[in-house]
Design brief:
By secondary structure, the protein is mainly alpha-helical. The protein is built from three helices and no strands.
Length: 93
Amino acid sequence: MTGRSSRYLVNPEANWELPEDDDANVAWARECLAALEPHASGGLYLNVPGLLEEGDKLVRASLGSSYPRLAKLKARLDPDNVFRRNANVQPAP
């Protein structure tokens, strides 16, 4: 796994109730993450993936050099990608 050497995990939490507040709150969360990025190790932790907007990029960055091995394993054990409603590893071709 990658990103496990950091001393801290920061997970900005943005929750709201009114749909008309969506844009402002999403913008706040993104600005917060952008402000923290220069201080980040570059590692990612998939237990707090947000909305998975980054898709495959987030999963690959989090799993690092283990991704190709996991994709091969996924191709063997779940070739139809049935278990995909998560931070998904795509089965290797």
